[in-house]
User: Fold this.
Amino acid sequence: MVREIYKKRYGKALLALLILIVGAFLLSGFSAVRSWHSDQTWLHSSEHKKQFQESPEIYYYVDEKGNDKEETLTFEESVELASYFFQGNYGSDSLREFLRNTSSGKNDPATDYYSAHLGSNGIVIISIIAFSGFLLFFVDQKTAFNRFLFSLPVSRRQLFCGKLLYIGLPLLAAFLGGSLLLVTALKLGIPAPYMNADWSELLNSVGISFMTCLFAFLISCFIGAMVGNLVFGPLIYLVFMWSLLILPQGLSQTADLIEMLKNGVNYSADGSLRDFSRIFTFDVGKSSGSFLMSFIPVLISLLCLFWAYRKYQTLSLEHDGEFLLYPESRWPIWFVMTFYMSYCALTIFNPIWNTYVYSNLMPDVDSEIMWRYPLSHAVGNTLFILLAAAICATLLLFFGQIRRFLSEKWEAHLEKRTLKSRG
Assistant:
């Protein structure tokens, strides 16, 4: 029964999304292959050779002794370097050394590889899937479809799990299948010497990007199942999802702070545990993060979704207009919101403690006294941010109670004035 109801309600939209997701991956793969072959035609053309001979490109680098060097590739070397599908930054290496590393297919974990032929549409596809997860629960609440669902002779457990099974699972399968079709198109369409990423690297990238998609979908379902206000529900959801894009910056600032406290200001910036930039991998490619780093957000989202699943069993329609549908969960959510907003403010937008620690650990140079960030300013700004975050969370979660309290006080005041005027 549940499957048929969901099929009738979501079937057409689900089919359109599946076609869109798989089609986007296929289009991206075929476009990349076509772009690479078109580029090859130009690279091997006589016009390009003539242009190269007239103005050969000069590359600059710094050798091991710190001396500035310049290097010019031959035409054949230049064509070979430009032919490799995935490129990286050669940095301080000799360009010929970089060419040898690229041709060998060596994957440097510290290098961010990119392709000029492959579009970056992964974040768009994941955003569509995530927003679908949010709407999957939020729309049914706001359109009163939940009233119909709750009147059926089925348990709420079946209703909740049915949405994940019959709607969510096909969307996630489409993402995974589309990613596999993309890498297959790349491997089959680009000749082996120039497709400088092997199957293990590409499949590892597919797996980690899928975990990013899974996290985004599950956390979106959690939020969609918990909020009920038509305006602030979607608004806070969009702000939160945007904040996740810059969250790695905050985690890196936290790692920097810990390293400074342990090793001083001259700490090493190397280390895989400090590399949070790849905690969310959106696109398939040669570069990817670690499964452990990507699994932690998935685990958190699973715990949050289980929380929403437990609360869904007690959902009351009388709280439909509230920001949070479950009054008993206000204080736990309040603490989470206050902490998260404060953390983002103190690490991303205004890293107060990084500035304080760095300025106070810097030694004086040549009798010049370095500026020190005052501890009182750091503590004062931190307390201000915590207070602002707490006020925002309180207004969002307890707005209905505050409004009713003020309304009752105002009515009592008017009634008191009326009685006083009559007396």
